Amino acid sequence: MSTSELHHMQGTIGFTQVGRVSFLKNEIHYSLIAQPKMIRCPCCGSANVVTRGSVYRKFQGVPLETKKFIFLNVKVPKVECKKCGIIRQINVGFADTKKRYTKSFANEAVKLMMGTSIENAAKRLMISWHTANGILQSYIQKKSAKNRFKNVRRIGIDKTYIGKTK
Ligand SMILES: [Zn+2]
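A: This is the predicted complex of the input protein with zinc ion.
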């Protein structure tokens, strides 16, 4: 996969694939670095930052249909913000904070869990039951938050409708 294919399939916008791709038994490992436009303060978004080293984070990506597991080794720069003074990792837009998988991976996992047990999905995705369950629970939470919002809108529409008929 090239940088643009990774963007498309793994959602790794703002990161460029570099170096060698390693193929292990049933795994493919990519190395990614942040593009200059990503080097910003994660708190205030200021570009007035100085890089202070970097950390390596490994994320699981969406597996290929050929049952190859994808791993992304990402060099994440740490920046010192001249505006708010913090030293922190830049934002990695394609993954949630502290998660070891991409957002695209989580979406795929949810799709899979809609059709099978958490246990089966976890096995197929090569993650623990605990991780799979965590992905499902956070999906349910997000969805119910959205539904609550939808209900509010529907009530609003009903009121308008009643108002017009009176
Ligand atoms: Zn800042």
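The chain is about 40% helix and 25% strand. Confidence is low (pLDDT under 50) at residues 157-166.
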